[in-house]
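Board notes (copied after class):
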Amino acid sequence: MRFVVVQEPTETWAVFDTTVDQPADFTSQCLVGLTRDSATWFAARCNQEAHPEQHGCDIVRCEFD
């Protein structure tokens, strides 16, 4: 998977883009400081966007900052 959920030292969660090893961005929101549930949801959505042909969907782009 390109986008993965990681726990931050502050006990919050982030979504990282493994191709650049930086936090992902979703609709101009840097995906850090999240709850685990939110990070899991965002990672799933970003991975769907990264491979839309596997999921049959067209969603908002996920990018890194």
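Comment from the instructor: The chain has a mean pLDDT of 83. The chain has one domain: 3-64.
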